[in-house]
Amino acid sequence: MSNWYDKVDTRELYADKVVGCDECGESPLNIKGDGVVCGPILRLISVDYEKNLYRGSMLVVTKGEVPQPKVDIQLGPSMESSGSVSELNLKSGQLNATLIHSEMSYKFYRYAIEIELASVEQMCKYSVDGNTEAHYRFFIPSNTTNFNTISVSCNGFSLSVDTTKFKGSMWYDILRKHADVHYHVMLGGGDQIYSDSIKLYCNRFQDWLKTKDPIKKYSTKCSPELREELDKFYLKEYLEWFGYGYWKGSTEKSNTSQRCFPIAMSTIPSVNVFDDHDIIDGYGSYSHKFMSTDVFKNVGKSAYKYYMLFQHHTSVDEVEAYHKESCWVLGAQKGDYIEEKSHSVYTRLGPSMAVLGIDCRTERKLTQICSKETYDILFKKLADEVKHGKIDHLLLMLGVPIAYPRLVWLEYIFSSKFLFLFKWLSKKGIIAKGLVNEFNGDVELLDDLNDHWCAHYHKKERNYLLARLQDFAAQNKIRVTILSGDVHLASVGRFRSKVHTHHITSAKEDHDKKVLNEPENDVRLMVNVISSAVVNTPPPDQMAMLLQKRNKNHHFDRETDEDAVPIFMTDVNGENRSSNAFMNRRNWSDIIPVTNIINNKYLKNEYKVEIGEKLVPGTVGIKQEIDDSTDVSQVAYPVTENGIIATIHVEKDTSSPKSETVGYQIAIPELQTQISELSHAGIKHLDLK
């Protein structure tokens, strides 16, 4: 009890875990004997402030004929100021376990976590079969405090990336900051695992991909042997990655050992949605004919099974946990290819903060991301939740950015019929061998473009969703902040009320002043924090420059503009940066309530902010000035008592095991104005009358 408040020196404790992160030896599964082979992995399920109840789960996977592991917990205040050691009244107990899945020699155990919220932040320490680690602990905020939240995506390398260039680990940086910040939840925005190597290590699937005869390829049934091979692949891939941070790509220089990643999962509970790489690159965005092949459908079904097991601690065969758990927002109908209902996730993240993670993959097809009926269910869920207490901030998880420069011109080029000859020659290996994919012969990058909300097929759906979000936010006085990843760089997209720049009348001038000077009253203000990738390689400088040039002020409707925030005015070395809205370095982000920053000694020293002041988006701890009064893209946002601050932590030096980052912040005020009806006159691609 005397060392209950022991602080974990993560800098010292985990520095050696980063050394050699650019290589991997033999699979740990081949070395590891019987016993625990994966986990513990923590998951947040729900927080009920009417019942004062925090619910989560822990996943432990064992190998061999070993007894069910015993998990003991101790619960008490997290800070010494919450009570002296002599007065400590620690609660002890044992978590109840359910065997949710058995396969080959592996058993999956889910442990139920139910903790009563207290008036102070609590720390829960645990042991597995009597074994304790410094990171076997997690934090539960008080019943009056909103969560300190992490947002990550693209947690893995693409198949042929030269990983020898990356000597550091963003997960090490996360663990370092966690010791001082106490992150309460980690939002996984998709691509928590990169499973593209199924093309290399699943022999029967590889043979199918190489089938030249299109009739044979499209008519082939997925044999029981092939399905078993698919299952074995995903099971092994998850056990290696989630258990040890072990991954092997397609070349001798494509390997990594992200040892800090499993540690983070055992100390910060997760809420996840999935994206294509959790299945295979581009899944859902190929032609309907190819997606409907029996083999490719079974790839999706197999990946989905293990996604639910490892990322949601749920078996698809369970009735209660899979169909009726309170966190789920189930889709209206089953997806065409995975043939399951989409499982979006919702929970409160504090008395006045919530998260909705939309499942944008299960129903996805080339012409659709989610059905209108599913959107109706999602917005009904939000409307019902508002009745359970005021929400100031809704965090909306969308794997792919929704406020991002248009690349439709590339989409048209890559899908042009004039490329037919080049695609045929590439498929034959005569020219540009990597030009087309091995799935359906489309240009390699086309699936990435088709994934985007601004893609030709998705524009209408995008604008429909955004209009409904604006209406919901304005009618309920809620600030919506969108969290995305996917694109391997950092940015902050922005929707806001229109700022007039031509033929300005006095009335329009007053309107513009209000938009620029009172963003807390702008019902159309909604930012898209884009944080990617926590592991994968960033694109070259030329891509950031291209996006910067494409960063034009778009008119969503006659009253709403969209652009990207110039948050990266300086690079990580302090030098001026021309691509000031896009940062092509590895990164991760967090969203922290202003009051938590003010009340945390470490954070207050880092951010140096006070309630009432205004912050120009930029480097954490450095007061920025608006250097051009005519540049309406530069806006100072108020630091409000009920506001949040979103920070993107950008890697300084890929060659350094120190894994240091520079933070770039934007203050996001709560919405202080309520409007019953918004105009969407002039909205493109759909009629909302």
Automatic annotation (TrEMBL):
Cross-referenced InterPro entries: PhoD-like_MPP, PhoD-like_sf, PhoD_2-like
Domain PhoD-like phosphatase: 135-413, 421-602
Recorded GO CC terms: membrane
Name of a matching Pfam family: PhoD_2
Name this polypeptide is given: WGS project CCBQ000000000 data, contig 00107
Organism, scientific name: Kluyveromyces dobzhanskii CBS 2104
